[in-house]
Amino acid sequence: MISIKSGIDEGLYDKDGVKSSIHCLTQKSINKERLSTVHYHNYIEILYGIDCNATVWADEKRLRFKSGDLCLIRPNETHYLYSKNSYNYYYVIKFLPELLISREVSLKETAYIMPITVNREDMPPILIEKQYVTDKMKNAVKDIFEEWNGGKNGYEFAIKGSILQLFSEIIRVQYKKTEIVPYLKENSALAATIYSAAEDIMKDCAFITENEAARRCNMSYSYFSRNFKSVMGNGVGSENIICVIFLIMMV
Fold this sequence. Notes:
Elements: E1 8-9, E2 14-15, E3 18-19, E4 22-29, E5 33-34, E6 39-40, E7 44-51, E8 53-58, E9 61-66, E10 70-73, E11 79-83, E12 88-95, H1 107-117, E13 126-128, H2 135-150, H3 155-174, H4 189-204, H5 210-216, H6 221-232
Parallel strand pairs: 1-6
Antiparallel strand pairs: 2-3, 4-12, 5-11, 7-10, 7-12, 8-9, 8-11, 10-13
């Protein structure tokens, strides 16, 4: 078992003496077995296989990663790649979650974002196999690397735009036949109170306890916890949570 403490914290990429919210690189390996060190970081990491047949290991979960596949690894997941092949070639795109989560992001947008970007022990990395990778995904990856390698003025904004396009396609593939927020009860005054407080908390981007969430709803902890399941689909755990919206996905 490899814990997060036994891996290497890569930190943020230093580009021209400035910590970067984005880091793109191509990986080519002629070595067998491990293709990367055991590591973790604050970035969301997207892998796109060009010519490879490898295995992605992330928080004790293993996924086969082949040519044409796209894999998303959540922030702070301990991970590495290994392969018995002598040659592997793939793209790596890293970006901070803040690119997706901001004060202007709506409640519904957060419901899309959190299940994909928040690291949970019971959720494996997201793997989109070659046959489900859309042309828009491929084009977005191509545009990201053209901008990164070109380094023209404003390339950061162009890359962020392509990342958003890529992420929207990932959402559409992942949730094509499922309802993101199945527990919306728009006519419930109680639900409206909880959603309103949740949206405020999300905009703060704060790590809060369940007691703080209850306080922001102007409810007692016990009352808040009892009603949260009926409104959002689950109760409030004892651990810190990034925001109440995070619990939407725990259904």
